[in-house]
Write a structure and sequence with these properties.
The chain has 13 helices and 14 strands. The protein is elongated and about 85 Å long.
């Protein structure tokens, strides 16, 4: 797999990507299993010990709705990063072409650069009441399905990007946030719902493991006007009763290049208390953000016809009839490396090992349309032992 390289003032960062071009028309059970497996894979990201992760969604109206998942880590944790990314190729066993890893910079850049030029960071202005700060956790994710549907109806290209950066929030900042929430409680005439909201956001810092930043992007001025009005309308519906006022939703041409390139450039240490409370998220929220799923109606609108299974071009025409099946579960297994010409000679050894309880994996059952190199790499890095058969010259 290809890993892009970035440098922050503190360290060198590597970032990999999973390209998710959308599901083809498949049975409902297959679709549900695919999304379940995808969410479970995302839950493994804390083990990377990485700088962060991102989700990119791009709509080309009437044409396609596609995703890209990015994960980044320090250069010293490149092995853990690869181990997190490679298992996403298992999704190919459910739906062909649904998850691929770029193998070159060219393949990576095509997806990484795929976002419209007029960009808006979804952040509310600072609110104050007396000496207290008021946090507002307005998010674009809950609106995303309706925004994408509207953009498609109007013929607007729309991009969404969310960065998740893993952080440790020190006790001093948590205490300051709780103290601020108490000051809000003591304000004269303050709505009880506002007090509860500030308390909830302050308490969330105790178990928060990351901060998030969201961006929306379009290509043309009419689309900017539509999106700005949509954001304003939804913000008022959610927060007008709490006396919050929406911002101006500023769109910057070719803006936020670094932030959209890698989550490691997301600021977190310098965030004021209210913005920290508004953007802090816990592990369960990380999964919901990165595993965002469109409604069935929206997904079906852009689902491609189901592809026929690709021919098994990597396999010989005939396997020995007594060759044991390749193990496909999650328990420890042995990776078997061999030469195809030796299949008849190694089959007795493999059958003996299987009879002794060993679980064996070898390159059988991988379809020709799958990312062959990535699958082999993932299975090799995940095995508990390697069995290598050498041919005699």
């Amino acid at each position: 797999m290809y890993l892009a390289s970035f440098r922050t003032p503190e360290e060198a960062i590597l970032q990999g990507m999973v390209r998710l071009p959308g599901l083809s028309r498949v049975p409902e059970g297959v679709r549900l299993q695919w999304w379940k497996n995808y969410a479970q894979l995302i839950q493994g990201i804390p083990a990377v010990g990485g700088a962060g992760a991102s989700l990119r969604i791009t709509l080309d109206p009437g044409v396609s709705l596609r995703w890209a998942l990015f994960a980044s880590a320090s250069e010293a944790r490149s092995v853990q990063l690869r181990r997190f990314l490679a298992p996403f190729t298992r999704l190919e066993t459910l739906v062909t072409g649904s998850a691929t890893l770029p193998l070159s910079r060219e393949n990576y850049d095509v997806v990484a650069d795929d976002i419209p030029l007029l960009r808006c960071r979804i952040a509310t202005p600072s609110f104050r009441a007396g000496g207290a700060r008021l946090a507002c956790d307005f998010r674009a994710t809950p609106l995303l399905d309706s925004l994408l549907a509207e953009a498609d109806a109007y013929g607007y290209r729309l991009g969404y990007h969310v960065n998740v950066r893993f952080v440790e929030i020190n006790r001093e900042r948590i205490r300051a946030a709780r103290k601020n929430a108490l000051e809000v409680r003591d304000l004269p005439g303050v709505p009880r719902s506002l007090v509860m909201m500030q308390q909830r956001l302050a308490d969330q810092l105790l178990h928060a493991s990351a901060v998030c930043e969201e961006y929306l992007a379009v290509d043309a001025s009419p689309a900017v006007q539509w999106l700005r009005e949509a954001l304003q309308r939804n913000f008022q519906q959610q927060f007008e009763a709490l006396r919050f006022e929406a911002g101006s939703w500023k769109f910057i041409e070719a803006g936020y290049e670094e932030e959209l390139a890698c989550a490691a450039f997301t600021t977190s240490d310098e965030l004021p208390a209210d913005e920290l409370c508004a953007t802090a998220i816990q592990d369960s929220q990380i999964t919901r953000l990165l595993a965002w799923r469109p409604s069935d109606d929206l997904a079906d609108r852009f689902a491609a016809p189901r592809q026929a299974d690709a021919p098994e071009t990597h396999e010989p025409a005939i396997f020995p009839a007594n060759l044991p099946p390749a193990y496909g579960g999650d328990e420890p297994y042995v990776f078997v490396s061999y030469k195809r010409a030796d299949l008849d000679r190694i089959t007795p050894a493999m059958r003996y090992l299987q009879g002794r309880g060993y679980k064996l994996w070898y390159d059988r059952g991988i379809r020709g349309g799958d990312d062959w190199t990535a699958i082999l790499e993932e299975r090799l890095t995940s095995c508990c032992a390697l069995l290598l058969f050498l041919s005699q010259v």
